[in-house]
Design brief:
The complex is a heterodimer of chains A (about 525) and B (about 450). By secondary structure, chain A is of the alpha/beta class. Chain A has helices spanning about 75-85, 110-115, 120, 135-150, 165-180, 200-205, 225-230, 250-260, 360-395, 425-435, 460-480, 485-490, 500-505; strands at about 155, 190, 210-215, 235-240, 265-270, 290, 310-315, 325-330, 335, 400, 410-415, 440, 450-455. In chain A, strand 8 and strand 9 (about 335) form a beta hairpin. In chain B, about 35% of the residues lie in helices and about 15% in strands. Chain B is built from 13 helices and 13 strands. The relative contact order of chain B is 0.14. Classes of the chains: A alpha/beta (about 525), B alpha/beta (about 450). At the A-B interface, helix 1, helix 2, helix 3, helix 4 and helix 5 of A face helix 1, helix 2, helix 3, helix 4 and helix 5 of B.
């Protein structure tokens, strides 16, 4: 054994030990077990230092105060460690390829975060006098200009809080436009079966009825299938393009024309806009309304499930009905229209959100857009589509591609390649986890059996894609070789193995409840919370 | 382009593997006339970091920031101090750049903080169960109204005149399109409203707010009893969530659904968003709730773990029969909320609430000494209504010229309504120093 000159070992011991190490703490070195924050309660500790109240006088009009809240007490070091340990139990774009189809998990530039934290954006109140927030209104106006120009659309509603909220905005604009036309009987919305669940849910949320259009054998929607459903009770079609199979709808112009000829509108779900940004303008496809997920195409962070932002571009036909509030160019700079009476000829359908929209996301999106520019955004779409096709080309002989021909920004596979192996798409995905990859979207879209939808995005390098391809080929071959047990036991290297979702739903435990007697079981050991 | 790793060599090699000559060939399904030949005209090309920073900093510099001036604006969004460790912690890439925890084995971090968040919201509101967040308080309120209507299959909604007008408008917009019968009451600036008489057998729910838009404090216990006697639900809205560190929670008053704007804890003003809606209810109504829910379960080894649950309520499973269309919520804002609330803890939150109230009481006392100024409220938390001898909007504008952001003129919400022009909402939180308050007093003395 080698030693350095202080006598410390400098080469590893050559000792053989059997089996997996079970530690005293349950920790696995970098992988720490972490109790609930409530179980870390350290009565008397506090994580903030506040000055004493300047007066003990109260003016509460006799309303009762509460005795206690029941929150735990911790000093700052323990709070920081708690959340840092939790963070280490997550996969993220920063640590691994995250090819979650339909979610556009691209790199989130930190410049965007820095810009959103400029006090001039983060520390201004939505109800300040407009003369004190001219820069904020100008930023909204600039982002609106980019989004309108990129899409070729004449108008935009900036306030929706996420993609599904944008869908609601679009459908409410259509609702209002139909009412204004005196055609309130138009209450049927056509939705292809490949659509995201939010589409039919949004239509229903607006009081419309949903009529499903079946997909063709080639994964597309045909103009004939749409025409067969058209009638004078149709309000609109909600079409995702590129669609959720990762395919561009080649008959989209004909579909738009047919819907328009029948008196309906064309709502485009812009979830997959990343595939065409800078290369195709939705206006040239006949779109009347389309939401743009700023957290997808324009890289505002997904944040473990939001916040998103879903501005909606609108055609001339729908523009007058855009919701309040909106920014206009006024006599003395920018102005904010917050009341229908000030909308000058427009007929806003109402208000969708507390204030003016997701300003923090607007700043990030504009930073991203300015960084790329018109040339860079076009390259974004090109590289996103190139990366997806490269995966498709390298995997189609070992996995079963659902459709022929080039795809757009995501490649769809189904479970035919697993036939006879006993391995399910879920098992396959869980084995990917042990290999260090976040799985793709599974079991969606519903138009193929056992869907595996892979969206690499443009921010993965060829090296990363090549490693991913090698891993997928390895797993596909392993499944075909009959190693069922490996897949069924996956994942094995994660902080938790497969979780029992049936138990979670059957007897929901949705919060921590203080145990009657102090819990003696260490963290990580199952205990009933009730 | 610094964000695009593919080199020209990579691109050529990849095209060769795919078997096409150019990327354009991959766009063959796009109709010919819709294919753009080059970058879209009239827009700038890519910029370096420095240029982007300069551009955006110039815009930011045109705004008056809350921290730079004596600042008393509330009206549904509040200026509070957020500890540095909140933002530093949520900036960890594993939080910032992950997504909805669809794969629980590799998202236990997100799932556990959501479970803790749900518990904190339930404790704060005095309710049994809470979801994993909504976009904001206003959209949460509209979702609560729809949920109430699903529960009792009724159609009439009564909105208190103390409800924030933006919340009222979002309810009118979102629930109005569903054909609900919405009865919004006149602005209740005098705190004289009695809604009991309006409740009948058709009433789905009543929506009330405490502290109200005008800062009044209300105990809704009797109202809840009256509503329940007629089968109606009571939705209590809280736009200043710090107040729950001091005041009786709505759950103890008998509320059926509680919706809060959670911005005050952990989240900056951000010109109105992103914020975080808190949504809590009774166990018996959980299957009618909108939004994501995180639940506890066990893994294959019997260890405690967390998953998204009861998703058969949600759009990705139920499609048009879902309880809501919501998908992405306010994950990162909920994380900010939960970290800040963990730092505050029991002692910190109750003290923060008392400091806020003490500052508001002090400011009210000082303002009452100004000639012609009257405090409308008998009680308040950290915001109250002031009656001025002049139009509030003009006074606010003049004070802004003097570098003081004095509050929200009620006329900004109700420009068409007579009798409200001289009312000003004034908020005072822990960030306001006695010097700030004196500056406001002096400013008012000058402009009145």
């Amino acid at each position: 054994m080698a030693m350095n000159n202080q006598g410390r070992d400098s080469t590893p011991h050559a000792v053989a030990v059997a089996d997996e190490l079970v530690t005293f703490t349950g920790n696995k070195a970098l992988q720490q077990e972490e109790a609930l924050i409530f179980e870390l309660d350290n009565p008397g500790a506090v994580g903030v230092d506040l000055e004493a109240p300047v007066t003990t006088k109260t003016r509460l009009d006799g309303v009762k105060t509460r005795a206690s809240v029941g929150l735990p007490s911790l000093a700052e070091p323990d709070v920081v460690r708690h959340y840092t340990r939790l963070s280490q139990k997550n996969f993220a774009i920063d640590t691994t390829m995250y090819p979650l189809g339909s979610c556009t998990m691209k790199h989130n530039p930190r410049l965007n975060e820095k810009m959103a934290r400029l006090p001039g954006f983060s520390d201004i109140h939505p109800l300040q006098p407009v003369e004190t927030v001219q820069g904020a209104l100008e930023l909204i106006d600039q982002l609106a200009h980019w989004l309108k120009t990129l899409t070729g659309m004449p108008a935009i509603a900036m306030s929706p809080g996420a993609g599904a909220h944008g869908e609601l905005c679009g459908l409410m604009s259509i609702h209002a436009a139909l009412d204004a036309r005196g055609e309130s009987h138009r209450r049927r919305v056509l939705v292809p079966e490949s659509a995201h669940g939010t589409n039919p849910a949004t239509a229903a949320f607006c009081g419309f009825t949903v009529d499903t259009i079946p997909a063709e054998e080639n994964g597309r929607v045909s103009v004939e299938a749409v025409k067969a459903k058209l009638g004078d009770d149709v309000a609109c079609i909600m079409l995702t393009n590129p669609n959720t199979c990762g395919l561009f709808e080649p008959q989209i112009r004909e579909i738009a024309d047919a819907v328009h000829a029948a008196g309906g509108y064309f709502y485009c779900d812009g979830a997959n806009y990343n595939a065409i940004v800078g290369r195709v303008r939705p206006a040239d496809l006949g779109v009347d309304a389309m939401h743009i997920n700023l957290h997808k195409t324009f890289s505002t962070p997904h944040g473990g499930g939001g916040p998103g932002s879903g501005p909606v571009v609108l055609s001339d036909a729908l523009a007058p009905y855009a919701p309040l509030p909106f920014v206009v160019h006024g006599k003395n700079g920018f102005d904010l229209v917050e009341q229908a009476a000030d909308a000058k000829g427009a007929k806003p359908f109402g208000r969708l959100k507390g204030f003016h929209g997701q300003m923090g996301m607007f700043v990030r999106a504009l930073a991203y857009i300015l960084s790329h520019g018109a040339d860079g955004l076009r390259q974004v779409a090109s590289d996103a589509v190139l990366n997806a096709n490269y995966l498709l080309a390298n995997l189609k002989d070992v996995m079963s591609a659902s459709f022929d021909g080039p795809c757009m920004h995501e490649a769809l596979f189904d479970d035919r390649f697993l036939k006879g192996t006993g391995v399910t798409p879920l098992d396959f995905a869980k084995a990917m986890i042990d290999e260090g990859y976040h799985p793709m979207t599974m079991y969606f879209p519903l138009v193929v059996h056992g869907a595996l939808l892979i969206e690499p995005t443009e921010t993965e390098s060829k090296q990363t894609l090549d490693r991913f391809i090698a891993t997928m080929r390895h797993l596909a071959e392993k499944a075909k070789a009959g190693d069922l047990a490996h897949f069924q036991a996956s994942p094995r290297l994660t902080p938790r193995k497969r979780l029992d979702e049936t138990q979670a739903a059957r007897k929901p435990v949705l919060r921590w409840v203080k145990p009657a007697t102090p819990a003696s079981a260490p963290a990580g050991v199952a205990q009933a919370a009730e | 382009m610094r964000y695009l790793p593919l080199t020209e060599t990579d691109r050529s090699a990849m095209l060769a593997t795919i078997g096409v000559d150019s990327v354009d060939a991959l766009f063959r399904d796009v109709p010919e006339q819709a294919r753009l030949k080059g970058p879209i005209a009239g827009l700038s090309n890519h910029m370096g970091e420095l240029a982007v920073e300069r551009h955006l900093s110039r815009l930011a510099d045109k705004n008056v920031t809350a921290s730079a001036v004596p600042f008393f604006i509330g009206g549904g969004a509040y200026k509070h101090h957020v500890p540095a460790s909140v933002d530093q912690t949520l900036l960890r890439g594993e939080f910032l750049t992950s997504y909805t925890p669809y794969q629980p084995e590799v998202t236990q971090g997100t799932l556990q903080y959501l479970f803790e968040f749900q518990t904190q919201v339930a404790l704060l509101t005095g309710m049994e169960v809470a979801n994993a967040s909504m976009y904001d308080g206003a959209t949460g309120t509209a979702e609560a109204v729809l949920m109430a209507a699903r529960i009792n299959k009724r159609n009439k909604v009564i909105l208190s005149g103390g409800l924030h007008p933006h919340y009222r408008e979002v309810v009118e917009t979102t629930c109005g399109v569903m054909g609900m019968d919405i009865r919004a009451q006149a602005p209740d600036w005098k705190n004289a409203e009695d809604l009991t008489a309006l409740i009948d057998g058709e009433t789905a729910c009543i929506v009330v707010q405490t502290p109200s838009l005008f800062g009044h404090l209300r105990d809704f216990t009797a109202l809840c009893d009256a509503a329940h006697a007629k089968g109606a639900l009571v939705i209590v809205v809280v736009t200043e969530v710090v107040s729950l560190g001091l005041l009786t929670p709505p759950g103890e008053m008998g509320a059926d659904i509680v919706v809060c704007e959670g911005q005050s804890i952990g989240n900056g003003l951000n010109f109105g968003g992103p914020y975080v809606g808190l949504f809590a209810t009774r166990d018996k109504y959980v299957r009618q709730m909108p939004g994501r829910l995180c639940g506890q379960t066990a893994d294959a080894d019997g260890k405690r773990g967390f998953v998204l649950t009861l998703s058969t309520r949600e759009q990705h499973i139920r499609r048009e029969k879902a309880t809501s269309n919501i998908c992405t919520n306010s994950g990162l804002c909920a994380l900010a909320f939960t970290i800040h609330l963990s730092l505050l803890g029991e002692q910190g939150l109750t003290k923060l609430a008392r400091v806020n109230h003490a500052n508001a009481v002090t400011l009210a006392d000082k303002l009452e000494a100004v000639k012609g100024v009257k405090i409308v409220n008998d009680g308040f938390f950290n915001e109250f209504t002031v009656k001025l001898p002049k139009k509030a909007a003009k006074v606010v504008s003049k004070l802004a010229e003097r570098g003081i952001l004095a509050g929200v003129p009620v006329s900004r919400f109700y420009p068409e309504m007579d009798g409200l022009e001289d009312l000003l909402l004034v908020a005072s939180t822990e960030v306001n120093s006695l010097e700030d308050m004196d500056a406001l007093v002096r400013g008012l003395e000058e402009v009145l």
